[in-house]
Structure to design on (347 residues):
């Protein structure tokens, strides 16, 4: 488990230089074209496929955020031959699925890595992709509706799906994954916590960064879709019948403050991830479920602006926890012998 504190770079003390390029401060990205249908609210575009609302927008700014999140995950596993997933599916998987694919970046990279596999990504909103490898298929659908894919998958992947489902829906999703994998196939999920942490006391207790995570988690709880998948997914996957459950813990630094090169790089990109993501992560939640009363759009803008300022303070050595879980669907012989053992125990 990666529970060692990340060592601070003592030479980083000003918000100037290569890690804080000027243009990071002007991330007022324009809303994309109106070709895609969707619901506009508070200046952001949301999916309209599902009757139930999904709290994060599907717009250019969010797609940029997903791309940055993808890079953070890749950098932190960059020493691995395959930084995209850890499930041991062998060199020749046939069918791979990415649930809630977002911009489709993971699915596209996996399709590039396994040109003989068919890699599907599914999402509520069409990803803005101009080119895709021929073996990658991005589809618009609700993962909670009936699955119509005919071929069983070698691997089903999900990343940052917190807030997408309530508890019974999560159960349904894991069961669907189980039912749609080949025997011996793998499920893999990566989640990050919205809570911002710090190991050396450099983040003031009174800072917004310090309270943001718990506050947004409370709002999501009121909405009925919690943001705690990082801590629940392993048990839920096990409960769904998967075996061989593995976990890998990560610290995703926020900002270029670490001394180690890999962490510095990851923190630099994660800083960008937060700058472009924060407004979209909280606008819907705070204007619907803020307490004691729902916030106005303007209040959210002020809040986000204050957070941005804090994020840019290099003396705060912040990070968020992330976790990867991968597990296997048992083979028929394992199921049969498990059943036999239960029968023996009952005698
Ligand atoms: C936070 S994004 C993560 C995107 C991508 N997995 C990544 O890591 O870059 C979660 C995605 O799940 C999608 N999503 C949420 N509920 C869904 C559902 N019921 N069916 C399909 N996609 C869903 C959202 O539209 C969103 O694009």
């Amino acid at each position: 488990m990666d529970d060692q504190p990340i060592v601070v770079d003592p030479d980083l003390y000003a918000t100037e230089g290569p890690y804080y390029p000027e243009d990071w401060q002007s991330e007022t990205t324009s809303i994309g074209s109106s070709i895609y249908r969707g619901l506009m609210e508070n200046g952001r575009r949301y999916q309209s496929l599902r009757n139930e609302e999904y709290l994060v927008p599907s717009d250019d700014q969010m797609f940029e955020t997903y791309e940055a999140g993808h890079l953070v995950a890749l950098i932190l596993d960059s020493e691995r031959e395959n930084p995209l997933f850890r499930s041991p599916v062998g060199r020749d998987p046939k069918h791979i699925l990415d649930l809630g694919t977002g911009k489709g970046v993971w699915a596209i990279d996996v399709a590039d890595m396994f040109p003989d596999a068919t890699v599907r990504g599914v999402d509520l909103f069409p990803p803005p992709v101009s080119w895709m490898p021929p073996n990658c298929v991005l589809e618009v659908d609700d993962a909670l509706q009936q699955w119509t894919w005919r071929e069983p998958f070698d691997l089903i992947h999900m990343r940052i799906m917190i807030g997408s489902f309530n508890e019974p829906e999560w159960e349904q999703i894991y069961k669907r994954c189980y039912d749609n994998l080949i025997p011996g196939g793998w499920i893999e999920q990566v989640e990050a916590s919205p809570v911002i942490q710090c190991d050396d006391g450099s983040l003031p207790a009174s800072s917004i960064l310090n309270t943001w995570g718990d506050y947004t988690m409370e709002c999501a709880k009121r909405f009925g879709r919690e943001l705690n998948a990082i801590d629940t997914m392993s048990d839920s996957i096990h409960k769904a019948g998967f075996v061989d459950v593995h976990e890998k813990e990560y610290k995703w630094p926020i900002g270029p403050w670490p001394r180690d090169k890999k962490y510095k790089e990851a923190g630099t990109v994660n800083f960008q991830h937060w700058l472009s993501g924060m407004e979209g992560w909280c606008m819907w939640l705070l204007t619907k479920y803020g307490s004691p009363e729902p916030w106005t759009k303007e209040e959210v803008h002020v809040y986000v602006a204050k957070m941005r300022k804090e994020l840019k303070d290099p003396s705060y050595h912040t990070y968020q926890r992330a976790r990867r879980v991968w597990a296997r669907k048992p083979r028929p012989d394992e199921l049969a012998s498990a059943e036999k053992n239960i029968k023996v125990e009952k005698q």
Observations:
- Helices lie at 60-76, 105-113, 167-179, 208-223, 229-239, 261-289, 297-311, 332-346.
- The longest strand covers residues 181-192.
- Residues 21-35 have pLDDT under 50 and may be disordered.
